[in-house]
Amino acid sequence: MPSFSRRNFLFTSAAAAVCTLVHAESAPAEPIIDIHQHTDYSGRTDEQMIAHQRTMGITHTVLLPAGRFYGLEAGASGNDRVQEVARQHPGEYFFFANEVPYLSDARDIIVAALKAGAHGIGEQKFMVDADSRAVAIVAEIAQEFSVPVLVHFQYGRYNTSFERFHTILEKYPKVNFIGHAQTWWANIDAKADQTVLYPKGPVTPGGITDRLLTDYPNMYGDMSAGSGLNAILRDEDHARGFFARHQDKLMYGSDCSDSVGTGAKCSGSQMLATIRRLAPDKAAERKILFENAKRVLKLPV
Length: 301
What we know:
This protein is of the alpha/beta class. Helices cover 44% and strands 10% of the residues. It has a single domain (30-297), classed as Metal-dependent hydrolases (TIM Barrel, Alpha-Beta Barrel). It has helices at 6-26, 46-56, 79-88, 106-115, 133-145, 166-171, 182-186, 208-215, 225-233, 236-245, 267-278, 282-297; strands at residues 33-37, 60-63, 93-95, 121-124, 149-152, 177-180, 219-222, 250-251. The protein has a 5-stranded parallel β-sheet. Residues 1-24 form the signal peptide. This is Amidohydrolase 2. One of its GO terms (molecular function) is hydrolase activity.
């Protein structure tokens, strides 16, 4: 057998250590899918948004376009812009389709975006009732293309009459709906006051949202924004049970417009930390941060 000098041994050991270090630094982080971000959000540039997502450790981002009007009340841009960013960053960015559902050409616009590669429809944030014909039109398109619909529920403003939304779930059982925003999250509480959009204090289990997630296989939850973070932090004991109960139905989203990606100004990074802290185990955490979104949105990641 060949003999090795002490010098050769030290050189070989050092080289092995360097290789190990390089491998560790180049190894991919745990994948995280963010199902809720916007282009041009409150004036944020593409470069700022991309930096924000990478600072949070997001590996895959879904961009939700605005419809023709309103800009989702945040200056968010539409179908063309989200497709542009996704084309520039293949595999890292994906997009949904959207349009104001009661416009005469809404179907044509949504279908065109779906044919261009959209993985869902939304964020549907328009002044209609939750069980209206406008919502049914979107559901019919989603059913035809086998994609989910992300819905913003806000008392007195967007997709109102939340208590009747179950009729849509029943009428379109093959369509997966993803609930989001103030009224969706306030109603984890059985004693929710519908006029209070950011309630505080202990949660009484069994609210409308809890029941929809439990009773309907086609209902899912988007964890994003201040409304999602508030719902989880207001009663952490309830949140632990909520995560355990609905770990197959919840998906991480950020929906924050800051350019920082960390700290108190960034609800997305706070929600990431909260999920990791309160999820019942690592398997549930991975479902909420990655696996559920990959499955429901049919993302090739």
